[in-house]
Structure formats: C-alpha cells, structure tokens
Amino acid sequence: MSEKTLVMIRHAKSSWNEPGLADFDRGLNKRGKEDAPLIAETLIKEKIYPQQVILSSSKRTRSTWKRMNKLFELDKSAVHAYDQLYHSTPGEILKTINLQSDAVDTMFCIVHNPGITGFVNLMCGTDIFNIPTTGVAVIKVPSFSKLEMGEGELLHYFYPKQFKTD
To answer: For residues 145 and 101, what is the distance between their CA atoms, to the nearest angstrom?
Structure first.
C-alpha cells in the first residue's frame, strides 16, 4: 500500500453580519473569501491536488471549498459533505476518514476548530496551539481506511497570514 496525503483544512473566516443566523448557516466574510483561493494557490505551488474532498456540511466549509475549487476544478462527485464533521471531535474526524477508500492518494478534509487542531496534534504528535481559519496541515499517512491516531507525519503547516504583508 502506498503512502497517502491527508490535507487538513480549517474553514475560512466566517461572517458574523447576521446575529440571528444559526452557526451552521454562517457564510464567509471578506477575508475568508480572499483567503480560500490564496490557500488553494499555495497548495498548487506545492503540487498538492485533491482527488477527493470530505467536509463538514456547514455553509462555511462548503463555501471555503467552493472558492478553493475555482482553482482545482475537482468534479462534484469527488466531494462528500458529512453532518458528523460539523464541530467534530478528533475521534469523529478519524472515523469519517476511515470510511474513505484507499483508491485515492490525496484527500482534503475541511472541518472546524477545535477538532482540527486536536486531530492534527494527536495524528502527528505535534503541539500546535491553534490552527487559524484557512490553516492547512499536510500530513503523510499510511492509509485512509485503516488510519490510526499517531500514524501521521506533518509535512507542511501554513495559514494565510504567513503570506500577507499588510
């Protein structure tokens, strides 16, 4: 079995312009709309392209992917939204990854904090304090379907503020 690349992405910055809106239904703010394609460009520069995407079914995760996918142009059939990834624990994220086939080599997973930070730290033995919005952790793993905590190797970690000069 060949090694796999798991790209963990926290959704882009969400909007708080509609106070009565349910958390699940919040979209992206201006910065989030700009950061999503910036991160996609960074992944493309690193030659990291998704063959499959799993994500929380919330509006902000779907909007993050929609803006990133303008650069990747991945077919909709390779994108799967899961209700259980909305504010999921590291264990729930792992269970959902384990449902995926090992037929693909590179999978993106777009989720929320604090689950993503906990997942990356447990998977890779790292001590990242907080993965910021649109933050990305690229992890080498042996499998998706049989993946266990602690089997990942962190290859890259980056987020939009690292690339901005303002």
So the answer is: 6
